[in-house]
């Protein structure tokens, strides 16, 4: 008799709860049975959190590149001659870039401005280079290295 009263109370409670909160709130069906009646939902791919994962990968790649650069710098400092040579080369490239912007180019090279874009292009008729957007930095650095080696 007690089980019967308990079962009736439970059914009454479930019925009242379903009226108050909706039909699925306190269903007596097993969870598997409840979910089998529903339509399967498609995965949501709104791209809302995609940026976080992408940004994390980019940050990790940047950290790795920075770490590698630090290791390279430490290795270069262990060899003073190589470090000095790399430092001079960086300085010579900067000097050559400024000279090219001013129009001071090696023999055989010329520069002109593109009328459409206004950008400067470089050419060398002796070497058969019709035009290039990049100044002849390698030739200019080579000249600077020869001048300073004396």
Q: In summary, what is this structure?
A:
Keywords: Signal. With 150 residues, the protein is mainly alpha-helical.
Describe the protein's architecture and organization:
- The chain has helices spanning 2-21, 31-36, 50-78, 80-102, 137-149; strands at residues 109-113, 120-124, 129-132.
- The model has no long low-confidence stretch (mean pLDDT 79).
- By secondary structure, it is mainly alpha-helical.
- β2 (120-124) and β3 (129-132) form a beta hairpin.
- Helix content is 61%, strand content 9%.
- A three-stranded antiparallel beta sheet has the order 1-2-3, with no helix packed on it.
- It has a domain at 63-150.
- The protein is elongated.
- The longest helix is centred in the middle third of the chain and has 29 residues, at 50-78.
Largest sheet: 3 strands, antiparallel
Average pLDDT taken over every residue: 79
Oligomer: single chain
Q: Please mark out the parts with pLDDT under 50 across 5 or more consecutive residues, or reply none.
A: none
Helix and strand topology:
Layout: H1 2-21, H2 31-36, H3 50-78, H4 80-102, E1 109-113, E2 120-124, E3 129-132, H5 137-149
Antiparallel strand pairs: 1-2, 2-3
Helix pairs in contact: 4-5
List keywords for this structure.
WW_dom_sf; signal; 3 strands; 150 residues; three-stranded antiparallel sheet; WW_dom; 5 helices; mainly alpha; WW domain-containing protein
């Amino acid at each position: 008799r007690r089980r019967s009263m308990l079962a009736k109370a439970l059914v009454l409670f479930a019925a009242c709860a379903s009226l108050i909160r909706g039909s699925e709130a306190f269903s007596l069906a097993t969870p598997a049975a409840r979910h089998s009646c529903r339509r399967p939902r498609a995965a949501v791919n709104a791209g809302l959190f995609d940026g976080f994962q992408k940004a994390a990968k980019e940050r990790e790649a940047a950290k790795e590149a920075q770490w590698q650069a630090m290791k390279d710098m430490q290795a270069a400092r262990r060899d003073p001659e190589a470090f000095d040579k790399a430092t001079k080369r960086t300085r010579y490239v900067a000097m050559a870039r400024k000279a090219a912007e001013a129009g001071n180019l090696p023999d055989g090279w010329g520069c002109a401005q593109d009328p459409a874009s206004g950008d400067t292009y470089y050419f060398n008729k002796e070497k058969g280079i019709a035009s290039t957007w990049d100044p002849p930095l390698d030739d200019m650095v080579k000249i600077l290295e020869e001048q300073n080696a004396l």
